[in-house]
Amino acid sequence: MKEWTLEERYRVLESPEDIRGLYERIRTSDYRQTYHVQPVTGLSSDPNGFTYHDGKWHLFYQWCPWGAVHGLKYWYHVTSPDLISWDNAGVGLRPDKIYDNKGNHSGSAICANDELYFFYTGNHRDENWVRTPYTCAAKLGADGKPEKLPEPLFGPRADYSEHQRDPKVIYVPEKGKYYIFIGAQTLDERGTVLIYESEELLKGWSFAGELKVPGYENFGGMWECPCIERISGKDLLLFSPQYTKLPGRAESTNHNVYLIGQMDFDTLTFTPETDYRYLDFGFDYYAAQLASNVEDPDKSIIIAWIGLPDNHYPTEPEEWEGSMTLPRELRIKDGHLIQSPITGIEELRGEEIAPEGTILPACEIQVDIGEGDFDLNLYTKEDGTGGMTCHYDAETKTCTIDRTGMEKRFNEKVGEVLSVPLEQPLYKMRIFIDHSSTEFFINDGEATFTTHSYPTKEEFGYTVSDNAQMKIWQMKASVKDTFVI
Fold first, then answer.
1. Long-range pairs of 313-316 with CB within 8 A, sequence gap ≥ 24
2. Which domains does the chain have, with CATH numbers?
3. pLDDT score of 357
4. 18, 46, 114, 143: the active-site residue
5. The pTM is what?
6. Average pLDDT for residues 33-43, to the nearest whole number?
7. Annotated catalytic, 46?
């Protein structure tokens, strides 16, 4: 494993030629995705600035160009007409101001007056490596590139720790104000959200106060990537609590959860109507972001990073890592979220594969399941052994997914076996396999499970219980992995 120096991790990208050779090397990897957004080189992590504007979907991701390492972060830009086909558009934000000299960290986007604006955290460090996080803004220019404001909107509060980042900007019509939610940590190391308000988008911001969530005053040591949206008359609050272990999550200390309830902007109180739930039950799902400007009161669209902070993956020696999930449509039903693959993803289906006990590196699987226990083993060897197992226990209504049987094992100490509790008996699965990821949609979106997976050339078999009917389609490529910087 390469040991990175601080200078290597925080090197400034001066020219596309600095990484062209790296791109040429990694593009031949067996694990490059075909219908998931992935880094052009190096590391991709949090999705940022996800929105629809002027007939096009815009998505940015945190990007360190040099390798599978967290260092100097850029926003890399991809666009799509339909959330299915994606084109690389090049670097969106560069760390080229004094206030973001060590990285453009996560943030969001909003459309106002037919213009597109971005809000992000400028990561500044002084000569002693002391960090100061600034909340900054940019506007999409005529050339399709964000243009930064000359100064930050505001700096951090001294009565909280240095962990103040990931601004989510929204407009609340009934209040006639814009609000920014910022993930934060108190001085006694409790996770929280700070709220700022303004009647104007690019000026006049003032601190409104700390978000109050009754029952969640001591829930994790930092809340990253807060996000709020109103769906079908309910408010949905997402965040990623860190530095804590939660039930059913093995040894992981990084999570992605949601609450459904009501937000009161007069008292800055979010009142949950249910206990927290996991956005995804898988090993590798984090920093989820809701798209802005969806304009449908009964749904939202979400995308997340397939990966976790501090985890390591088998493509690190190839000097790249990371991917985005498929975009998912969110709806609220009976007090919890229903997540569905983006409408139209079926257009990527190619030839249906005869059920002969093999799968492809890029395919969709649909399984209709009868009563009783159920077993599906993916990525097995030719003799049916090994692989990633999915066992459903009908008595407890629990799916357990175990990847310990695969040749390439990783993050073993964090956990390789996780379970998904269901509210109704298992009857259906849709599984999306790409070269280095597997996404399960269970019972028409009642639950999802996302994991990285790195099968060898000998691991493309499967076995399935007799009480199931299975269809497999080859999936066509929809992400143009072109070298655009």
1. 313/68, 313/410, 313/411, 313/452, 313/454, 314/31, 314/408, 314/410, 314/454, 315/29, 315/31, 315/68, 315/436, 315/454, 316/1, 316/2, 316/67, 316/68
2. 6-341 (2.115.10.20), 347-480 (2.60.120.560)
3. 78
4. 46
5. 0.97
6. 98
7. yes
